[in-house]
Design a protein that fits this description.
single chain; alpha/beta; two-stranded antiparallel ribbon; 39% helix; globular
């Protein structure tokens, strides 16, 4: 059963708008959302980067049925995993059965701020594995101590605990990260609609676990208008690893984007108002083995995008779409997966 979701872009919107966008996404029929967790935006043209855990608290009071996860959090350097364990536990209490924790190995853009050396990808994967172990230890309850290779936790106890720990999803775009996700996580997050990546996840233990795929789009009145919006507001769409993970400042992403061909920036983004292009992009992930697909709409026209999807895209996948007054505008909504509450570097 496919579930369709919405990406809350913290780099493009402030806290109040993110809460409004989450509420609208729920009202038109989206079933879940992921919210980005950054300290900096990718470029200086992106005007925001609020503290995501405060925003999650606001969203939790504005929605009733939407599931929400971080997309994604890096618990390696900027955050200690014990702090993320507490933050995720609190979020899960505020959204019983509807919060999940998306994790990844991060980007230098956000993690360098504490003055720590940016480690290579294999070391970050080791750190992520230990960080997940620390969080699961604390979610067992009681007083806990951990002394590991990368992290030390002394006599810590999380007092505000959900009935069940939040599921942990790990982001990946390459086989090694997909295998780590299959082995230690409750699900996969990826931007790569490739069956081979899903197979690596399955073979490592992820066979019956959920898979979340992100589609990046720009709905606008025309393809040309959409392309202009992407090149201005989200030029990082055309930047690949290792630059995505290793560049330290927004101005560096701007410099790289300025040297790129315009078509390179938009080549992986679905542009314009043609519903079939959006539907086909979602189906590409479904065909690759994903059972959850969420859509990142670039630019300011979020409400228009959400209602466009309600009218033209969600009904194709038999997802309920509602008008602003709450009346049904599509087919009956499917029942949410019970296990759905189960790197951002995508390394």
């Amino acid at each position: 059963m496919l579930e369709l979701g919405y990406a809350l872009s913290s780099e493009e919107f402030g806290p109040a708008d993110l809460i409004t966008n989450a509420r609208t996404a729920e009202s038109v029929g989206f079933q879940f959302a992921l919210i980005s967790d950054h300290f900096h935006p990718w470029t200086n043209q992106q005007p925001h980067s609020p503290f995501v855990w405060s925003v999650i608290g606001g969203i939790s009071q504005a929605i009733k049925n939407l599931s929400l996860g971080t997309g994604v959090t890096c618990p390696l350097m900027r955050y200690n995993p014990a702090i993320i364990a507490q933050a995720a536990a609190t979020s899960a209490v505020m959204m019983p059965g509807r919060f999940f924790l998306g994790l990844g190995t991060g980007e230098n853009l956000n993690e360098h701020i504490t003055g720590k050396h940016w480690p290579p990808a294999p070391q970050r994967q080791e750190m992520l594995e230990e960080a997940v172990a620390v969080m699961r230890l604390l979610w067992q309850g009681g007083w806990q101590t951990h002394r590991g290779k990368y992290y030390t936790v002394e006599q810590a106890r999380i007092f505000t605990m959900p009935a069940k720990p939040p599921p942990v999803m790990i982001a990946a775009s390459k086989p090694r990260s997909a295998e780590l996700a299959g082995r230690i996580a409750d699900g996969l997050i990826s931007t790569v609609p490739k069956r081979d990546l899903v197979k690596h996840f399955e073979q490592a233990g992820g066979k019956h676990k959920p898979r979340y795929g992100q589609v990046t789009v720009c709905y606008a009145s025309s393809e040309d208008e959409a392309a202009r919006i992407v090149r201005k507001q989200w030029p990082n769409a055309g930047i690949d690893a290792p630059l995505m993970t290793d560049l330290p400042l927004p101005k560096h992403f701007e410099t790289v984007a300025e040297s790129m061909q315009p078509d390179k920036i938009t080549e992986d983004v679905i542009l314009g108002p043609e519903p079939r292009r959006h539907i086909d992009a979602i189906k590409k992930f479904v065909d690759a083995g994903y059972d959850h697909v969420y859509v990142h709409q670039i630019g300011p026209r979020q409400s228009e995008f959400l209602h466009f999807y309600a009218d033209k895209v969600l009904p194709h996948f038999k997802v309920e779409s509602k008008s602003s007054n709450g009346s049904s505008n599509g087919s009956k909504r499917r029942t949410r997966h019970n296990n759905h509450r189960t790197d951002e570097s995508h390394a």
